[in-house]
Amino acid sequence: MLLPVGVVVRRAPGVTRWAAWNWRAVAVLPGAGPAEWRELRREGEAVEYHAATLTLDLHHTQTDAYLEALRAREPSVYVVMRPVVAGAADMPFEVTLVTASPYEAQDYCDTGEEIVERVPMPEGLIALIRDFIAAHHVEEVFKKRKRDHVTVSGAQDGIGDARIPQAGDVYRAPARARKERLH
User: Fold this and answer.
1) What torsion do the CA atoms of 26, 30, 34, 35 make, to the nearest 10 degrees?
2) Which residues of 70-161 form beta strands (DSSP E)?
3) Helix (H) or strand (E) holding 103
4) pTM for the whole thing?
5) pLDDT the model gives residue 158
6) DSSP 168
7) Using H for helix, E for strand and C for coil, what is the string for 2-64?
8) C-alpha distances in angstroms, 56 versus 29, 53, 72?
9) Residue 102 φ/ψ, nearest 5 degrees
10) Residues whose CB is less than 8 angstroms from the CB of residue 113 and which lie 6 or more positions away in sequence, other chains included
């Protein structure tokens, strides 16, 4: 199922001298039309932009992940933003993905190259995802794995190198080295 979702990004003054601005994804707009960094609201120096409209792709094999997202204390979607090379664009980030899967969001967190923001899920989107899960979720039965069959015949295959002839036990300690240590 494909659903257009608008992403609202807020620019606020930075709290340290090293960052002039703090950029955060703060909301999503289900069913939003196309937009590219359109200003929505201004409160003093803080500005909220409709940064982009992306497609939220709900896939029938990912219903376990969507269930996990809905079970959270605050159901959320995740917005992935990638820094843009300085001077290449007016805004410092490109919004690249919106997902309802916490597992997919975690994969993006692992790289450290993108910024992943957790955004509260609107009630309408929660209802839509619940309906999608009800229609497509198949509970997987847990199957305990059994051990592979192991031969316990006592034969010691693979000990030592077959190309080098062994006169005795391959596990024995060299006799000369042992005597020298005792003295």
Assistant:
1) -10
2) 76-83, 93-99, 115-120
3) helix 102-111
4) 0.72
5) 55
6) S
7) EEEEEEEEEEEEEEECCEEEEEEEEEEEECCCCCEEEEEEEECCEEEEEEEEEEEECCHHHHH
8) 11, 9, 19
9) -65, -25
10) 82
CA distance 131 to 128: 5
The pLDDT tens digits for 31-61 are 888 888 888 899 989 999 999 999 999 999 9
User: Tokens in use for 162?
Assistant: 């077959």
C-alpha to C-alpha distances, 149 to 78, 145, 152, nearest whole angstrom: 44, 12, 9
Token readout for 6 is 């608008």
Return the DSSP state at 116. Answer: E
